[in-house]
Amino acid sequence: MEQTLLLIKPNVVEDHKIGKVISLLEEKGLLIKDMKMEILTRERAEGFYDIHNGRPFFHPLVDFMTHGPIVEMVLEREDCLQYVRSVVGDTDPQKAAEGTIRRLYGRSITQNAVHASDSIENALKEIQYIFSECG
Ligand code: CMP
Fold first, then answer.
1. What is the dihedral of CA 31, 36, 37, 43, to 10 degrees?
2. In which order are the strands placed within the sheet that holds 31-38?
3. Does ligand 1 have an atom closer than 6 angstroms to the CB of 71?
4. Which residue from 75, 78, 127, 134 has the least number of CB within 10 angstroms?
5. CB of 109 closer than 6 A to ligand 1?
6. φ and ψ at 72, to 5 degrees?
7. What residues of the chain score a pLDDT lower than 50?
């Protein structure tokens, strides 16, 4: 069974919509295999988004991801990665399809409600990074 990492970003926590996002994921048939809340340190957020280091949105993204708690979860289903990406929607909430999480709960490209892994390789790395004992 395939797994992916999903992060609920600080704007959803602030908007009191954690429950709505979790309900939607469960209604779509996704199994929550692990879940916790964390306030990321700068170092941990920079490490997580290292692939984007040097891009213009990197520092605003790290600022946003460290300013409040996030919810971290491992999701499981057949063909989980592609399926979760279809439930989550386009990176830009304004371009995301109706009914997707980012369309419903995103505020902007940075504050786009959730992060989901973009490849099987990255999902394995990100689950390890977020859920390893030293994290
Ligand atoms: P996320 O899935 O968390 O992965 C990287 C994040 O960078 C992305 O969602 C967006 O929140 C953020 N971001 C900000 N600007 C851009 C951009 N122009 N292109 C892609 N991602 C961006």
1. -110
2. 31-38, 70-77, 2-8, 114-116
3. no
4. 134
5. yes
6. -115, 130
7. none
Tell me what pLDDT residue 134 has.
58
Region of 127 on the Ramachandran plot (φ > 0 left; ψ -120 to 50 alpha; else beta): alpha
Burial tier of 5 (Cβ tally within 10 Å: 0-12, 13-18, 19+): buried
SS3 track for 62-124: HHHHHCCCEEEEEEEECCHHHHHHHHHCCCCCCCCCCCCHHHHHCCCCCCCCEEECCCHHHHH
Contact 89, 25 (CB under 8 A): no
Instruction: Say yes or no: CB of residue 65 within 6 Å of ligand 1.
Output: no
CA of 111 to the centre of ligand 1 (A): 9
Q: Residue 58's pLDDT is what?
A: 98
CA distance 11 to 4: 21
92-107 pLDDT, tens digit per residue, is: 999 999 999 999 999 9
Handedness of CA 111, 15, 3, 23 (dihedral sign): negative
